[in-house]
Amino acid sequence: MQQVATSGVASVSPAPITSPAVDVRPGRLSADEYARRFSDANPALTAAQAVLEAERCLYCFDAPCASACPTHIDVPSFIRRIADGNLRGSARAILEANPLGGMCARVCPTEVLCEQVCVRNTQEGKPVQIGRLQRHAVDAVMFDPAAPPLFTRAEPTARHIAVVGAGPAGLACAHTLARLGHAVTMFDARPKAGGLNEYGLAAYKTPEGFAQRELAWLLAIGGIEVRNNWKLETASQLTELRRQYDAVFLGLGLAGTHPLNIAGEDLIGVQDAVDFIATLRQTTDLSALPIGRRVVVIGGGMTAVDAAVQAKLLGAHVVHMAYRRGPQAMSASRDEQEWALTHGVVLHHWLAPVEILGQAGHVRAVRFADQALVDGQLQATGRELTFEADMVFKAIGQQLLSTVLAEAGMRLTGGRIATDEAGQTSLDGVWAGGDCRAGGLDLTVEAVEHGKRSAHAIHARLQPAVATPN
Question: How far apart are CA 172 and CA 455, in angstroms?
């Protein structure tokens, strides 16, 4: 057998656990320091900066950036309008294709989508800052209280659609359907609508309550009722929705998390990273949020990065982020990995968790097995490392809680909902999109496209003769 990859961690294991006490407490920083650390991670462009950046665009015919965007925004068109000073026209071009263009401009991994294929990038290694330009245009219109609405509703169709899940897919579906003249009732399990945008993203990516500001803009179209604290828990609920409404769209997201299935997982101080992020996002006073002095994050995706960086920003002294494979296999983009390193997170690769160690019921450390890739298979090298920890965040992926759907007779693939290209499920009159749908990229921007595409499919099914509104 030939070893083709080796561990990227140091050969000397950390010293044995000697710390005298668990160190988890709030208020590690001053109020000014919390505000500074959790300020906007990527500040908005000024008007002059936006024009200068827009003028770098080559306005390519058959532009690769537009093809790379899951929502197919006409990127050269909206950028040219910024250069011409027509921000309203630019915002319309963006939001016509992507009604959540403001959020996507903040969180979309543009470095691996539109900006990666930008001709400026391929020729010069410096792409046009498409995401920041998109934010500039959308914010200029969305945050102007005097601006007239960009979109208006078509004449009412007397059709009523249920949308389950008020995350990116559900919001995009509801807004598109409302524009087409349909009435929409959105059901969501949380106290606030917004889904991932409100509960699942790092606070520094969406400061100043942007998720709710964007939600208010989306609902201003009219015709959308939101019912919070409603959870799909039984097959009979889905049956009743199909009976009461003309169509149903499921934007359920992934409410479940994968367990580590190792000893010590139930110790105090061990929690899912998504729960930590949601708690942080809903905390109005960050100084009241306890954080450990030593934190270990297990996982290699964007959720793991968000948890690790925010733990460091809250004042954790050391944060280890451990992933079982190499850096190229991480679902977190290279930019996200560099963001973690820039904030002092210690990244480890080729480490698989073996056991979470505790004392008096509280986590004290995590034991890892070093791994190597041998003949294409992960194998333990026989070496182990132990990291002390006051808190451990699990971020090894989420899953659809699909028992209800299976009981309702819905076809699933790999534990997620099987659909056609338009989002139609195996149940008549039911569509689905976003992370709960099989075969996707688990990106906010893709969820938006799913919701929009399903809305048009529902409209065609219910009102084939109704024209698309202006």
Answer: 8
For residue 468, count other CB atoms closer than 10 A to its CB: 10
DSSP category for residue 437: B
Q: Which residue has the tokens 């101080």?
A: 269
Q: Which pair of tokens denotes residue 355? A: 């056991």
Give the residue carrying structure tokens 């936006």: 50
How many C-beta atoms lie closer than 10 Å to residue 354's C-beta? 18
End-to-end CA distance of the chain, in Å?
64
Cβ–Cβ < 8 Å for 250, 431: yes
Instruction: Answer for the pair 185, 163: CB distance below 8 angstroms, yes or no.
Output: yes
Q: What angle do CA 216, 222, 227 make, to 5 degrees?
A: 70
Burial class (CB in 10 A: 0-12, 13-18, 19+), 388: buried
Neighbours of 313 (CB within 10 A): 23
Segment 397-408, tens digit of pLDDT: 999 988 999 999
CA distances from 467 to 132, 155, 221 (A): 34, 10, 18
Q: Which of 129, 139, 78, 49 lies closest to 103 in space, CA to CA?
A: 139
Sign of the four-CA dihedral 333, 329, 436, 262: negative
Give CA–CA dist 269/256, Å, rounded: 19
pLDDT means per 10 residues, the chain with 470 residues, are 36 51 95 96 95 97 95 97 98 98 96 96 96 98 93 96 98 98 98 97 95 97 98 97 98 94 97 98 96 98 97 98 95 94 97 97 97 92 96 96 94 96 98 96 95 98 64
Q: Which three-class secondary structure state does DSSP give residue 113?
A: coil
Query: Helix, strand, coil % (nearest 5) of the chain?
Result: 35, 20, 45
Rounded (10°) angle between helices 168-179 and 444-462 = 40
pLDDT in tens, 228-273: 999 999 999 999 999 999 999 999 999 899 999 999 999 999 999 9
Residues 6+ apart with CB under 8 A from 127: 115, 116, 118, 120, 121
**Sign of torsion over alpha carbons 433, 439, 441, 442:** positive
Cα distances (angstroms) measured from residue 41 to each of 33, 106, 160, 257: 14, 9, 40, 27
Q: What is the pTM of this model?
A: 0.92
Among the listed residues 74, 114, 113, 109, the one whose alpha carbon sits nearest the alpha carbon of residue 94: 74
Residue 92, classed as helix, strand or coil, is: helix
**Which DSSP category does 149 fall into?**
P
Task: Specify the DSSP class assigned to residue 56.
Answer: T
